[in-house]
Sequence to fold (429 residues):
Amino acid sequence: MDKLVSLCKRRGFIFQSSEIYGGLNSCYDYGPLGIELKNNIKNCWWRAMTYHHANIEGVDASILMHPRVWEASGHVSGFTDPLVDCRKCKQRFRPDTLQTKMCPNCGGELTEPRLFNLMFKTFMGPVENQTAIVYMRPETAQGIFVNFLNVVNASRQKLPFGIAQIGKAFRNEITPGNFIFRTREFEQMEMQFFVRPGEDAEWFERWREERLAWHQAIGIRAEKLRWHQHDAGELAHYAKAAFDIQYEFPFGWQEIEGVHNRTDFDLGRHQEYSGKRLTYFDEERKEHYIPYVIETSVGCDRTLLTTLVDAYCEEPAGDEVRVVLRLSPKIAPIKAAILPLVRKDGLPELAHNIANDLMRAHRVFYDEAASVGKRYRRQDEIGTPYCITVDSQSLADQTVTVRERDSMTQDRVAMSALRGWLDERVRYD
Ligand code: GAP
Fold:
């Protein structure tokens, strides 16, 4: 992890937030390569969920919602973690993470556990009183539930159908940590799939299968993924059944995605709290009912961390160590580096032309500094799958050398075919 964290900073994937002020605990900023990787992951998810399913629509709901939403969802009363304070140094801990009954920081005495709500609060409008409180959403899901009927009416979808959303969520976690694994501000990619009651168990299994396959499709090794089933004690207040997809991180097996059978809990509660009818009319059965919901919920930042951990690799290269990020070409931040072999004889001009053409379709990088070996290494370290080298032969026969990152094999490709060649290899479909 230390090596990865250092690479992330040095090469511009992830920086500590507000670093020049000493940083803000558990908040991170994505740098030039990090944002490319993140956008690619989001794009793969969006395509897999919406483009590949004619019966899944997208939405983008606001972060601030009516405060009654969080009463209906159960978050105001139930989204809590137990917390103990040290009477001496004032640090706070989750009691279930402690080995002893004393403060692990200073040995001081701890208070009795009390429940701490994880939602961030703020005020809407100029008056800071109880009636002006609004919450920063702790999950994106509720923005989907409250729009259920809007989407049904606007899209004319029939059950079974889904609504997908990508967006920020906030949780005032007591013990954030492990770099971007658990933070207080993060992005979720969630999909709520509405089904007929009674068909929920079958859809639950279908979505479990599909979501596991997605992680593998973006390049995560199958042997590092496993299922964890929630037992009765772990189940969230809304869930009838829940399975987590876990990944084996250097700090142990941990959840990256949850697939939940949320039954009719959320729509039922919103119907009750809003007083608005949220039933669906099933034309085939000629009956009104509240659909059941299968939810797939994955953290974007956590997936990004997973892809980096899974891709990081060190291997001997002569007397040196070659650091390679074996990221899938579909999510790699830079798809190809364009490298003139030497900085003369018209090679930089030709390489610039190639870069200008490819950059219309993909994020590519032009580099003419240092030896070609060094330039290859710099690209290996950030996971660039292809290095396109322009040499004197290119001038003669209009071909270039394409070096593949993992095998380091080299092929000659006609310049006129490059765009299609690259597109075929980096496209998510
Ligand atoms: N709507 C259901 C829901 O929010 P969850 O299991 O609490 O379920 C889903 O969260 C996913 O969101 C997790 O699997 C994880 O990937 C991500 N996530 C949750 N809390 C997080 C945090 N503090 N930091 C980063 N990602 C988080």
Q: What stands out?
A: The chain has a mean pLDDT of 96. The pocket of glycyl-adenosine-5'-phosphate is lined by residues 139, 141, 171, 173, 182-183, 186, 188, 190, 255-258, 295, 297-299, 301-302 (CB under 6 Å). The first helix runs from residue 2 to 11.
